Design the sequence.
C-alpha cells in the first residue's frame, strides 16, 4: 500500500510539473518531484519555487566519494592515526585561546547546562578547529545528493533535507547560499539541520540562532545538545581499563553503558571508579599495536550522540583534558 502511494505521488508530481521544469539539475528526478510534492503537502511549501531551487543544483560526485567507507579495510580503524589528527600542539594551543576569548559564554553555558567548559571547547575544536573549517559544500546540494543518490542512508539524509528547508524558511535565509560539510553539517559546531532545529539555542540574546557566525550560539548549543542527551553534571567520562579475559562478550554489548563497574571487574576488566557506575567496554584499535581498553561511562556515551564513534568521543575527552591542563600551566 505504501509503495503504491509513493508511486502515485511521483506520478502526480510529474504530471503537475510545468513545461521545462524537468530540465537540468535534480529537476528531472521523479524522487525529487515526489519530495517537492510532499513538502508542499506536509509543510505548505510553494512547489514551483522549491522545484526551481532543485533545477539550480545537481549531484555532487565529491560528496558521494567522501561519504563512502574506506576502500582498504585496515585503513578503517586506527586509534593512533585518528588521535594524532586531533591531539596536536596546534589544536591544543588554539583551544586555550578560544577558551580565553569566549570565557564568559563558556562559564555561563557550563553553569546552565552542567557540561564542563573544556568539553564544549574540545567538541568545537574537533568539529571545525574552533570555527576555522566549517565546510565548503552547498548544504542543499550535499543533502540532496545523499538523499537521492546514496541509497544506504537515503532516508536519513532525506529527513535532514526536509529539516534544512524548514530551518531556512523559519530563519529567512536562502538554502542555496549556506555552506557546510559534505554531509550537510552546518556552522561552528557542525550541527545537522535536525539537531539545529531541536537543540540549538540563541545564547547571545540577539533574537536568532546563528551557528555560522556566533561563537556564543555555538557554545550554548553544544552544551544544550549534550544536556538534552543526558549529560550527568560532575559525572566521569572514561577510565583506562586492564583486560585479563576475553573482551569479546563485553564488547558485543555495545557502547551504551549497561553493566556496572563491579560486573566488569568480575568479568576480568579492571578499572577505577564507583563499583555501581554503569559503563561500557571501549576498544581503541590500531593496526600492529596492542589494543587500548577503556571503560566509558554515561557521559562518554552522551558524547557519542554527537558523533556515534568511540574514537570521536575519546578524542574529545582527551583533547579536553589536554586543553585544560595547558590552560592551567600558563
Sequence:
Amino acid at each position: 500500500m505504501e509503495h503504491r502511494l509513493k508511486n502515485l505521488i511521483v506520478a502526480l508530481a510529474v504530471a503537475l510539473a510545468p513545461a521545462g521544469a524537468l530540465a537540468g539539475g535534480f529537476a528531472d528526478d521523479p524522487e525529487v518531484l515526489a519530495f517537492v510534492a510532499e513538502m508542499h503537502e506536509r509543510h505548505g511549501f510553494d512547489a514551483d519555487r522549491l522545484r526551481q531551487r532543485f533545477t539550480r543544483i545537481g549531484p555532487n560526485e565529491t560528496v558521494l566519494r567522501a561519504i563512502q567507507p574506506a576502500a582498504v579495510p585496515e585503513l578503517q580503524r586506527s586509534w593512533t592515526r585518528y588521535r594524532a589528527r586531533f591531539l596536536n600542539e596546534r589544536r591544543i594551543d588554539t583551544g586555550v585561546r578560544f577558551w580565553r576569548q569566549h570565557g564568559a559564554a563558556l562559564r555561563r553555558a557550563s553553569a546552565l547546562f552542567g557540561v564542563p567548559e573544556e568539553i564544549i571547547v574540545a567538541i568545537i575544536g574537533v568539529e571545525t578547529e574552533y570555527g576555522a573549517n566549517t565546510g565548503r559544500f552547498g548544504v542543499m546540494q550535499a543533502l540532496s545528493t545523499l538523499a537521492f543518490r546514496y541509497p544506504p542512508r537515503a532516508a536519513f539524509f532525506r529527513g535532514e533535507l526536509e529539516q534544512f528547508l524548514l530551518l531556512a524558511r523559519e530563519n529567512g535565509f536562502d538554502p542555496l547560499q549556506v555552506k557546510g560539510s559534505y554531509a550537510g553539517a552546518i556552522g561552528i559546531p557542525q550541527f545537522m539541520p535536525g539537531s539545529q532545529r531541536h537543540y540549538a539555542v540563541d545564547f547571545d540574546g540577539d533574537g536568532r540562532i546563528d551557528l555560522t557566525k556566533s561563537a556564543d550560539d555555538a557554545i550554548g548549543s553544544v552544551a544544550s545538545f549534550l544536556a538534552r542527551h543526558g549529560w550527568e553534571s560532575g559525572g566521569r567520562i572514561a577510565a583506562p581499563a586492564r583486560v585479563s579475559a576475553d573482551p569479546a562478550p563485553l564488547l558485543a554489548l555495545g557502547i551504551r553503558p549497561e553493566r556496572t563497574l563491579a560486573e566488569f571487574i568480575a568479568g576480568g576488566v579492571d578499572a577505577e571508579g564507583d563499583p555501581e557506575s554503569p559503563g561500557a567496554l571501549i576498544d581503541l584499535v590500531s593496526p600492529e599495536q596492542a589494543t587500548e581498553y577503556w571503560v566509558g561511562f554515561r557521559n562518554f556515551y552522551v558524547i557519542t550522540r554527537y558523533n556515534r564513534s568511540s574514537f570521536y568521543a575519546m578524542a574529545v575527552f582527551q583533547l579536553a583534558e589536554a586543553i585544560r591542563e595547558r590552560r592551567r600551566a600558563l
